[in-house]
Amino acid sequence: MSWFKRKEKGITTATEDKMDVPKGLWYKSPTGKIVDADELARNLWVSPEDDFHVRIGSAEYFQILFDNNEFTELDANMTSKDPLGFVDTKKYADRLVDVMHKTKLKDAVRTAVGKSKGRDLVVCCMDFAFIGGSMGAVVGEKIARGIDHSIKNNIPFVMISKSGGARMMEAAYSLMQLAKTSAKLAQLAEAKIPYISLCTDPTTGGTTASYAMLGDVNISEPGALIGFAGPRVVKDTTGKDLPEGFQTAEFVLEHGFLDFITPRKELKDKINLYLDLILNNEVR
Asked: Hey, which of 59, 85, 136, 250 would disulfide with 170, CB 3.0 to 4.6 Å?
């Protein structure tokens, strides 16, 4: 069957005539489904083929939650230092410069205040693209300042977690942020200001051990990985096979560590619903 075989040899195409498919036109989900990138964005970066929630960053979450995507960013220019002079495969200071240039972000969290369904809201959102969303001194400080802004102005607080945990390059400075952010959330609770925690894929390590699980209402997107140590580490440590779906949002919900799983397209409505119920306000 000749159409399966090359009939003639030596056929070439001039370089200027070659057609390359531009990058970013298509997205392939982990289940193998192919989705048009524009359609994916219109669907809030959720695959319409299999409902897979693609990882997104602070810019996309702010667009989803804030009315008309209008907000004021707090402490936008705060950046990390290298007090320990840490070096692994490269200097931490150089790594920071490289990742800031690559991601156009200052650190792994952004804090913004704006209106959501007409109500003022403070939102802290982590960016996994910045050193795995790791929690260093700047992340802890920006979250603490965001909570202070909520307390000062009596505004509900929303935390969107997406992190691999503590930033190892900052050692004890990083671990201090667990206590720091937890103490600030205790002050928020004393002020009787609502706190909604949204866990997204992945929420692990020190993030899970601190602010991610301290919400008045803890919610998650479908399929998110939520845990302390990752599944591979747990399996290697215990030497046992893990239950099916271990550390997925659905597994965590079933075992009582989450209140709700909320699809991305419902986030704005559901977060505001929970706030209305907590504050005993008329549901908007």
From this structure: 136
Cα 225–Cα 126–Cα 168 angle in degrees, nearest 5? 80
Of 267, 218, 274, 219, residue with least CA distance to 63: 267
The b/e string for 108-143 (b: 16+ C-beta within 10 A; e otherwise) is bbbbbbbebbebebbbbbbbbbbbbbbbbbbbbbbb
Give, for 180, the enclosing helix (H) or strand (E): helix 171-190
Residue type, 218: N
**Res 16: pLDDT:** 46
Average pLDDT for 166-170: 96
Q: What pLDDT is recorded for position 19?
A: 42
- List the structure tokens of 278: 């907590």
Q: What is the pLDDT of residues 31-84, one digit of tens each?
A: 888 889 899 999 999 999 899 999 999 999 999 999 999 999 999 999 999 999
CATH of domain 55-278: 3.90.226.10
d(CA 194, CA 155): 8
CB 81 within 8 A of CB 75: no
Asked if residue 129 has pLDDT above 90, the reply is yes
Query: The tokens 């671990």 sit on which residue?
Result: 175
As given in the structure block, the two tokens for residue 97 are 């410069």
Give Dmax (Cα) for the chain: 80
Residue 191's identity, in one-letter code, is A
pLDDT at residue 161, rounded to an integer: 98
Residue 178: pLDDT over 70: yes
Average pLDDT score over residue span 245-251: 93
CA atoms within 13 Å, Cβ hemisphere of 37: 6
List the chain domain ranges.
Answer: 15-54, 55-278
Distance CA 198, CA 262 (A): 9
